[in-house]
Specification:
The chain has about 450 residues and is α+β, with helices and mostly antiparallel strands. It has 12 helices and 26 strands. Strands 3-12-13-19-16-15-14 form a 7-stranded mixed beta sheet, sandwiched between helices. Strands 23-22-24-25-26 form a 5-stranded mixed beta sheet, with helices on both faces. A hairpin with a 2-residue loop joins strand 15 and strand 16. It binds adenosine-5'-triphosphate.
């Protein structure tokens, strides 16, 4: 597996994201808020499709997983018991020359000497732990007792609600609880666009099982998660599974895999799949004094379940999709002129816009009316975009950049003006091959739903 980097490619992707409205820097007009990003009209659709597909395959299509949505503001005791208050930190150093704060474990070395990536200085302070949690004050008084945290991961509310979910859903082991939501980490050095940010979203599953099932479920979930990425268009050969070595694993974990993707800035983690034993539930049972065990009706045994956790980042998945989809190719237009076509080759399942509808001419009432009618019929089923401005070739190109897999053009054949047999048909254009076919309007919904679900 190569770890080559391509900074120019990354720059082009970031610039397309801004130009086309996928992702903007947060608070941009005030100079930007470091480590925070806002998703624009195309980005929010892409991100929503990722989350919806995850929820569909991880929760709705399974009998053994239920969902929940926990609060972001978290009781201090929860994060004390989980170990975050005392140990959720990264080693930090300051560069004495340019005053930049840096992660000690990510410093580049020259001739064996660590140096500042910003100014090249070698005068660095000793490393000290920097806690990554954002704290806040709840209520009007600002004392020790009002301290709360913004959650650094979604997992803890799942553990804390384990008993309530178990009792109300009446699930039997093995079963899982899934959650998608925001998490916050005061990263020392946010970087690589949305890869490492201070506010991000996670998609996490805590899969509870019997102790003897742990290792086998770890393998199972690693494979399921690889399938997920393939099903949203990330080829298997762009993914890499790292078996986290014993020394780098959390002490309570019996096995951890990192699923990595070949980003233009190198091979980096998309998701962690970890067998966490009974550590989390045990910690919360001890600290809260409330029982978090499971009673097995068949064996009449009472025990604390073990857990396997696939934990994925929404934003990192979106970034992988953007990097994976970006393509430039040279094409020749009808007049024989060659030009560069920028095309986002998203899998139709995640593409922000599924289909664009174009009347051939905007000043022909009949064409416009027919195109609007088709837009109206498709709208309840999938995300449709209507565009009537500019030459048809230009309109196709705009949709290529947005990654829209299908384009429908309403032309004079549709109206039956050229050939009666073609009445009520439209041109369906395919983004990747640019090929066009004639299809019947009456089958459009079914046809497109089959290709985009
Ligand atoms: P890293 O080593 O990259 O900081 P991590 O191992 O601390 O990540 P986990 O705590 O396992 O990450 O979090 C699970 C997932 O959440 C990661 O695989 C990643 O997809 C996502 N994630 C974690 N931190 C960030 C962040 N700062 N920005 C965006 N996504 C993140």
């Amino acid at each position: 597996m190569t770890t080559s980097t391509d900074p120019q490619r990354m720059e082009r992707i970031v610039s397309l994201c801004k130009r086309r409205g996928f992702i903007f820097q947060s608070s941009e007009i005030y100079g930007g808020l470091n480590g925070c990003w806002d998703y624009g009209p195309l980005g929010v659709e892409l991100k929503r499709n990722v989350k919806d597909y995850w929820w569909r395959v991880m929760v709705r299509e399974r009998d053994d997983v239920v969902g929940m949505d926990g609060a972001i503001l978290t009781h201090r005791a929860v994060l004390k018991a989980s170990g975050h208050e005392d140990t959720f930190s990264d080693p930090m150093v300051d560069c004495r020359t340019c005053k930049t704060r840096l992660r000690a474990d990510q410093l580049p070395e020259k001739n064996g000497v660590k140096q500042c990536p910003n100014c090249g200085g070698k005068d660095l302070t000793e490393a000290r732990p920097f806690n990554l949690m954002f704290s806040t004050q709840m209520g009007a008084s600002a004392d020790e007792n009002s301290l709360a945290y913004l959650r650094p991961e979604t997992a803890q509310s799942i553990f804390v609600q384990f008993k309530n979910v178990l009792d109300t859903s009446r699930k039997k082991l093995p079963f899982g609880i899934a959650q998608i939501g925001k998490a916050f980490r005061n990263e020392i050095n946010p970087r690589n666009f949305i890869f490492r940010s201070r506010e991000f979203e996670q998609m996490e599953l805590e899969y509870f099982c019997r102790p003897e099932q742990g290792m086998e479920r770890l393998e199972y979930w690693k494979e399921e998660r690889l399938k997920f990425y393939e099903n949203i268009g990330i080829q298997r050969d762009k993914l890499h599974v790292l078996t986290v070595p014993d020394a780098d694993r959390a002490f309570y974990s019996k096995g951890t895999y990192d699923i990595e993707y070949e980003f233009p800035f190198g091979l980096q983690e998309l998701e962690g799949v970890a067998y966490r034993t009974d550590y989390d539930l045990k910690q919360h049972q001890e600290a809260s004094g409330k029982s978090l065990d499971y009673f097995d009706e068949e064996t009449k045994q009472r025990f604390i379940p073990h857990v396997v956790e696939p934990s994925a980042g929404v934003d990192r998945t979106v970034l992988a999709l953007l990097c994976n989809a970006y393509d430039e190719e040279t094409v020749t237009d009808e007049k024989g002129k060659s030009e560069t076509r920028i095309v986002m080759r998203f899998h139709p399942r995640v593409a922000p816009i599924k289909v664009a509808v174009f009347p051939l001419l905007k000043n022909n009432e009949q064409l416009v009316a027919r195109a609007r009618e088709i837009q109206g019929a498709l709208r309840p089923h999938l995300n449709v975009f209507y565009d009537e401005t500019g030459a048809i070739g230009r309109r196709y190109r705009r949709q290529d950049e947005a990654g829209t897999p299908f384009g429908i053009t309403v032309d004079f054949e549709t109206l039956g003006e050229k050939d009666a047999a073609l009445r009520d048909t439209v041109t369906l254009r395919h983004r990747d091959s640019m090929q066009q076919e004639r299809v019947e309007i009456s089958n459009l919904v079914e046809n497109l739903l089959a290709k985009t679900r």
